[in-house]
Design brief:
mainly alpha; 90% helix; 3 helices; 114 residues
């Protein structure tokens, strides 16, 4: 066997080995990628549910406590007198959920690009 043939054979073996390793690693990373995306989507859904739960608890506390109602009314009055427009509860909840969705989307996109 000549030196050129040996060199070509070694190059072919190394190239094939590198291809096999690359395929194995890529397959494994794809599994991690899928798991990460599923985890992020699950966390996003759980955060939305917790935000709804928190909102329900705060609404119940506000409804059952006249002092809280009075304080919130006073804050709104002061803000209006100062020329400020406070967001509604619905706007705040929507904004928080959108921010969580944006964060989850960013992480999912970054993970997919890897």
């Amino acid at each position: 066997m000549s030196t050129t043939t040996s060199s070509t054979t070694v190059t072919t073996i190394v190239s094939t080995g590198a291809s096999v390793i690359a395929l194995a690693v890529t397959g494994r990373l794809a599994g991690f990628n899928s798991t990460a995306q599923t985890t992020i989507k699950t966390a996003d859904t759980e955060v939305d549910a917790k935000i709804d739960s928190l909102r329900t608890a705060l609404d119940a506390a506000e409804t059952s406590n006249p002092v809280v109602q009075e304080v919130l009314s006073a804050v709104k009055t002061i803000a209006t007198a100062a020329g400020l427009e406070l967001p509604t509860e619905d706007q705040i909840v929507t904004h928080i959920k959108a921010a969580v969705d944006d964060l989850a989307g960013t992480v999912t996109v970054a993970t997919s690009a890897s």
